[in-house]
Known about the structure:
Blueprint: H1 2-22, H2 28-43, H3 48-59, H4 66-74, H5 76-81, H6 83-109
Amino acid sequence: MIFYLTVIFGCQLAGELLKMALELPVPGPVIGMVLLFAGLVIHRGIPADFAKVGDAFLANLSLLFVPAGVGVMLHMAMIGEQGLAISVALVGSTLATISVTALIMRALSGRRNDDGISEGDVSDG
């Protein structure tokens, strides 16, 4: 299990290094996550021990929010000053996310009529 934990942190480190070396506008952990995903696709699956490490991370996910919560509390005055802008950004991004998700879902699922038959399955004759 230590090996897979090292793989996860190694991917994050590789993402940070790529971000700095190539001056990419994407956060290093996101690049690391893409690298990890590519590795799992190449491996064609998730090893059982790797899944156990991932489950352990998910079981303790709430602990990872403690630093973010502390940061919010430290900057409460600034958040108060920018409250309207933050609220507009949150509402706007939420609406955009819901809209894009709905459009993609609609495009990928195909339209269904009242009988549950796809419109492409109905013959004209």
